[in-house]
Design goal:
Elements lengths: L15 E10 L2 E11 L4 E5 L6 H8 L7 E6 L2 E2 L5 H6 L2 E4 L11 H5 L14 H15 L15 H14 L4 E5 L7 H16 L3 E5 L3 H7 L2 E6 L2 E7 L5 H10 L18
Helix pairs in contact: 4-5, 5-6
Length: about 270
């Protein structure tokens, strides 16, 4: 198990405040009275078995599901999120496990897919898009240069660069990352971990959905475990171990020896 990464998260207002959120599908309560927050430059891992409610919670934040009740605040302001477009307009981007890339298009086209730059004559501004794409890709990975080949020919790590770059170019300050290292080899996983660290250094807040404990312990400052639609607990990642996290996921067992940490690292309650 990797050592937890603990950074000096600043105080002040959180990027995201999720307060008492509920979501039901028919008679099934997928999310029940869940509260969670995220601060700039912080990774909060959201954990739980399939059906625990973590994906539903994140899909409400991403605008894929409407919120039945409760409140979401973005940078202190109440937010109404009825669609993915609403979420994106609030600076929230989701990077799904499948990455949602068009395999037949190159990296430049994927970066601007659905939000292409146009000339004043109403045609695609290919030159402006390539210049912007090269600059954005270079910031995340200076060695990524084969941007004009179809993304199906790229490595998993390079595909993650494209997906993350798309979020950053459109000024995302909040990222939802769903299993970012799934099916990646050690070198590609290392690349993605480095990308996440760069995002954190730039003040981006990240919700990390992962079943991979090395990712959780290597990247997150705090972790929240959900079970049966409810929150088991939120802790500093450095204060718990893998066995205790698995106990929360499987049995819903709180960690008695560690105090919960609903606020940023350094704000233990």
């Amino acid at each position: 198990m990797s050592a937890a990464v603990v950074s000096n998260i600043p105080g002040g207002s959180p990027l995201v405040e999720i307060k008492g959120v509920h979501k039901a599908f028919g008679g099934v309560h997928a999310v029940e009275d869940v509260s969670l927050n995220l601060y700039p430059g912080e990774v909060v891992a959201v954990l739980g078995h399939n059906g625990a409610g973590k994906s539903t919670l994140m899909k409400m934040l991403a605008g894929a599901y409407p919120i039945d009740s409760g409140e979401v605040r973005i940078s202190g302001t109440p937010a109404k999120i009825d669609s993915p477009a609403d979420s994106q307009n609030l600076g929230i981007e989701t990077i799904y496990q499948t990455l949602a890339l068009a395999d037949n298009l190159d990296s430049v086209a994927n970066l601007f897919l659905g939000r292409e730059l146009m000339t004043r004559w109403g045609t695609l501004d290919d030159n402006a898009m390539e210049v912007a794409a090269r600059d954005t890709f270079h910031k995340l990975n200076p060695n990524f240069k084969n941007i004009r080949v179809p993304v199906r020919s790229l490595s998993g790590g390079q595909r993650q660069v494209v997906a993350i770059s798309r979020a950053l170019y459109f000024n995302a300050k909040i990222l939802i990352m769903d299993e970012p290292c799934a099916a990646l080899g050690p070198e590609e996983t290392r690349m993605v971990h480095e990308l996440v660290r760069r995002l954190k250094a730039g003040g981006v807040g990240i919700f990390l959905i992962s079943h991979d404990m090395p990712d959780v312990f290597g990247l997150s400052e705090r972790l929240t475990v959900m079970k049966n639609g409810k929150t088991v607990g939120t802790y500093r990642t450095a204060d718990v171990n893998e066995d205790e996290v698995l106990g929360m996921i499987i049995a819903g067992k709180k960690v008695d020896r560690a105090r919960q940490c609903p606020g940023p690292v350094g704000s233990i309650q």
